What does this fold into?
Amino acid sequence: MNDSNKKIIIIEGITEEGKTFRPSDWAERMSGALSSFQKHRIIYSPLLQPSIKDGNKCVMLDPALKISNPELYQSVLDFAKVNKLRICDEDETEKKVDKEK
It folds into this structure.
């Protein structure tokens, strides 16, 4: 199976109960795990980066991270599960973390 052909996973900063997840910089903190600092600017990896979806902070997780860094990939999904965050793919089909392989 080629994970790089899978759609980007979007973890939204909204809980299953519809509440905004705090702290407000959670997406940047999480994405910082793969970031670098160049010319006085933070550069996020295309495998794990903060974004905005429907006005809410989110993290975009590329399934290719599962190959290059399986521990970090699983850690991100576990974080979403523990905090009951919404998980969608690029075509916005909501998925439950429990169903992730």
Q: What stands out?
A: The longest strand covers residues 9-15.
